[in-house]
Amino acid sequence: MKSIVIERAGGTEVLKVREMPDLAPRYGEMIVDVAYAGVGLVDILIRKGGFTELFPFPVIPGLEVSGFVRSIGDGVEGFRIGQPVASMKLLELGGYATQARVTPQLTVPLDSLEGDLDMAEAAASIVNLTTAYFAVKQVNRIRQGDTVLVHAAAGGLGSFLGQIAKRFGAGKVLGTVGSPDKIKLAAPLGYDELLLRSDFVSEVKRIAGVQGVDAVFDPVGGETRARSLELLRPLGQIVALGNASGGELAHQSNEIWLGNQSIAGFNLGAYAMYDPVGVGQAAREALQLLASREVRSEVHGIYPMEDASEAHRLLESGQTTGKLVLQMG
Questions:
Q1: Rounded CA gap, 60 and 167, in Å?
Q2: On the chain, which terminus has fewer CB atoms closer than 10 Å, C or N?
Q3: Cα–Cα dist 147/145, whole Å
Q4: Where's the Enoyl reductase (ER) domain (predicted)?
């Protein structure tokens, strides 16, 4: 099989295509012939050495794949050879390869969904869509008519958060983006209004009034998260979904206590270690929404695996919306 291996931290030049031995399934696993692999911010952070304590070099990046079941290990039921699937490799990575080792709990049989779901869409969507679905439905437990603010509205996760919030009853969904160009890019993604993140506090106050918003979904972190607190209604909640800004601010517990507010965190990979069956079920339900076109996905571009460096460069440029995908097979 072919894999893209990172042997040391660095720029896009460290993404190297390597020939490796074919995989064989262990107990409770399957091997998938990978058709497509999603490209995400976490792959860039891993490439730069951000998670070496979890994923030491050499490492094959990639959290999400789609493809066809190649072989099935003992103890696995409910799948068949040749079946089209999408899978999340949250716990061990390895998606940038022509073969991937997957666990059945985190794998969705695509032929079990009602509707039509393209395999590139499935690979591009499964992690971010499942994250958005879980964050809105299970973590925030959104209520009918809530006013919601989503940061990084044009990104891979943000492209789903606004749609899922609307799907589960939000009355008004506001989104922030980092540049004027991204307002146009995020416009088809279910947002009632899109705002520049540089001036979002005053704009949200103008739109939502003194009562503020019920929920903030924030993959950005840092100063953006701190400034979002002043926009929350009493009993409002910030759901922390990442820290793309790299900034880290301590929140005073007295401020949260006296403001009757809460900050919740959700990380899909960490939660999958605790409840892989629940995460897999959420993935099936989320992908069904996509297959039945109740939500839409944004695939910004599809690149051959040999052009993984170009995909990383484009994602780092901040000029994309939705998701980038590598074609592996």
A1: 35
A2: C
A3: 7
A4: 10-326
Of 279, 328, 311, 312, nearest to 130 (Cα)?
Answer: 279
Q: Which residue has the tokens 């599809």?
A: 302
Rounded to whole angstroms, how far apart are CA atoms 126 and 69? 17
- Please, which contacts does 299-305 make with residues 24 or more away whose CB atoms are closer than 8 Å? 299/120, 299/121, 299/124, 299/323, 299/324, 299/325, 300/324, 301/325, 302/36, 302/120, 302/326, 302/327, 303/39, 303/327, 305/2, 305/4, 305/17, 305/37, 305/96, 305/98
Judge whether 236 and 214 are in contact, CB under 8 Å: yes
Residue 30: what residue type? M
Give backbone dihedrals phi and psi of 316, rounded to 5 degrees, phi first.
Answer: -65, -25
First to last CA, the chain: 10
Q: Chain centroid to CA 40: how far?
A: 8
Strand ranges inside the chain, DSSP E: 2-6, 15-19, 30-39, 64-72, 84-88, 99-102, 107-109, 147-150, 172-177, 193-196, 213-218, 232-240, 262-265, 299-304, 323-327
CB–CB of 2/20 below 8 Å?
A: yes
Q: What is the 3-state secondary structure (H, E, C) of 178-244?
A: CCHHHHHHHHHHCCCEEEEHHHHHHHHHHHHCCCCEEEEEECCCHHHHHHHHHHEEEEEEEEECCCC
Residue 101, SS3 per DSSP:
strand
pLDDT in tens, 33-67: 999 999 998 999 999 998 888 899 999 999 999 99
Q: Work out the pLDDT band at 250, boundaries 50, 70, 90.
A: low
Residue with tokens 């993604």: 189
User: From residue 248, how far is each of 223, 242, 245, 255 by CA, in Å?
Assistant: 8, 11, 8, 17
Rounded CA-CA distance 296/290 in Å is: 6
